[in-house]
Amino acid sequence: MKQEKGFWPAIKDFFFRAGDFKGVSSRAQYWWVFLAQILVGVVAGVLIGVIGPAILNGEKSFGASLLQTLVMLPAIALGYLGYPQLSLTIRRFRDAKVSPWLYLVLVIVALAGPLLAASGMGLLPLFILPIVAALVTLIILVLPSREQEVKPFPVQPHSPSTVGVGFGAAVKNLFLRGGDFTGTSSRSQYWWSILFSVLIMVPTGLFVILSLVATFVGVAAAGKIDPQNAAHIFNSLGFGAVILVVLFLAIFYAWSMLSLPMLTVTWRRFRDAGISPWWFVAFYVVSNFVSALQASNKNLVLTLIPLILVIVQIVILALPPKNLGEQ
């Protein structure tokens, strides 16, 4: 099996093989995706630069709210890149005949810098270790391919759903087909995936909320809430503050790992229920449009529309498969 070359094949490969942690990806595939991410970042920067001042004025109008939604889209899109980026980097390491486990070691080395600095070893580890880890990673990512054959990815387009799968099989399917917008996913596959997401997000979300509440309570107890007091509370935590920040980053990164897989399983569940997945997009667009409209025209009807759309989506996601003979 040969790799397709070029910009668009690399982008397609990036998303469709999001769940492939065992294959290889060429140097060209990796850097085409990197170029695409740079272009998206430039567009996002231009949008923020042009639209940002209008939002900062604090105007509560339909136009200002709509602009705010547009500015948030690039940030939302970034949340969907974490999972495929991780698998792409691992495949690029393997393509260069470097053990993917070295990538984990480099991440640990980079994180050790702030931890060592906070433990009293000075600012040198804070800068040196992340820089060393980044340079080693960069060198590996620019190494040429070692003429390895690309093994076919286990999940093929248009994979059918399986009725009655258990929790473990559904979670495996969720990540294995993390970039697959084709095929279908059964009710059991979808709702087990929802349960898995809840088990991950609820405890970690509560931890983040309670940690922030405790921090604000500490700031308030120190007197009045101002940047100096907040900095004082943070500094007083010392090593614990750095660990807390690292934990927050790890939690947000774990959430981003769920974004694309949950999007694709929802997309496939719509199709499995006999409903065009583009209705999912339509619901999202309408909800954001109504939310923007509420900024200048608050009323009960506008408040109920997003709720009604959520209920409609839940009903669709609970529908039985359209054709059990195909499952």
UniProtKB/TrEMBL annotation:
Key words, A-Z: Membrane, Transmembrane, Transmembrane helix
InterPro entries per UniProt: DUF805
Residues passing through the membrane, by range: 30-55, 62-81, 101-118, 123-143, 190-221, 233-255, 275-293, 300-319
PANTHER family: INNER MEMBRANE PROTEIN YHAH-RELATED (PTHR34980:SF2), INNER MEMBRANE PROTEIN-RELATED-RELATED (PTHR34980)
Protein name, per record: DUF805 domain-containing protein
Organism for this UniProt entry: Lacticaseibacillus zeae subsp. silagei
Phylogenetic lineage: Bacteria, Bacillati, Bacillota, Bacilli, Lactobacillales
